[in-house]
Amino acid sequence: MAAFDPWDPDFLADPYPSYAELRARGRVQYFEPTHQWLVPHHADVSALLRDRRLGRTYQHRFTHEDFGRTAPPPEHEPFHTLNDHGMLDLEPPDHTRIRRLVSKAFTPRTVEQLRPYVARLAGELVDALVEKGGGDLLTDVAEPLPVAVIAEMLGIPEADRAPLRPWSADICGMYELNPSEDTAARAVRASTEFSDYLLGLIAERRKHPGDDLISGLIAAHDEDDDRLTEQEMISTAVLLLNAGHEATVNATVNGWYALFRNPAQLAALRADHSLIPTAIEELMRYDTPLQLFERWVLDDIEIDGTTIPRGSEVAMLFGSANHDPEVFAAPEELDLTRKENPHISFSAGIHYCIGAPLARIELAASMTALLGKAPTLSLGGEPLRKPNFVIRGLEGLRVDVA
User: DSSP per residue over 89-116, as a string?
Assistant: First the structure.
């Protein structure tokens, strides 16, 4: 399995040649270090994302013991309480109920109303970058934009927003392969602090409702008068923040780094801003922000003659699927005009990203502002890749504005 080494710096720098080797070896392979079955082909990943024999959790059907797994350590409980009550890690019927209620507050109209705010904020951030002649695209534009947008949606006051990104980064550390005890300790601390903060904010919104998403989550109910529990509201708010900015931040810096390394494509984009919508989809495909998505096997499945038994964990390789030549012509080439682009960067099936429309608005706003206000934007130095595999990003992206 030399083709797949998610802890090797060379692999992390460019995993796509290794994915090609994995796909050539077959449709499914067992990876001993993480005890997972790797699925690298687009057709299989797309099908498994919709297959109800797999789940993000198994606890709606089995105990840990029945499923042949070990319960998480008690000291990790704050993280798992927070994580396990979010709809991303639930299956029907709980997932169905929570997604339905969240959708009542997180409507397309709510998202669309944010478009002017997102455009204005993106413009202000880029203006500041231009005024100082460049900087770090990550910290100056890519990060503050989606964090501010989701915080604004949730109704988190500006004075309270500083810890949001550090909390998110510490919690998301647990989604990497084989996280360390130090990573777990940071995630537990962040989960506790974030949950405590949201408890207070929810209590305040119960007394004084506003037109923010937290107030909407409190008010949301359906014909059976089902409502979100307090823990479900906390977990939903954290999920919306984490998922609502991690992918956008990394898609922005990964995307611009890809553009700098493909000057002909960048020149075409600068010459024709109407390419922005297809450019966003292609950049999400070309260097996928979320490389791997895990599912538990709830009932035996078979892939290409290999039986994967109940209790196993399947690792669907989004980055590999998005470079599958069976689906994408010349997948290793960046093509901002690519019309047929069924990438799965936002997942698929019942867990398709509820925030995908907002992410596209944010990505378009920052790209529009950068192309319009910083037409000479250039790479200011080779960036360092984060030592992460699952959530793929950069430590920073220095840029110059001549």
Answer: G--TTHHHHHHHHHHHHS-HHHHHHTHH
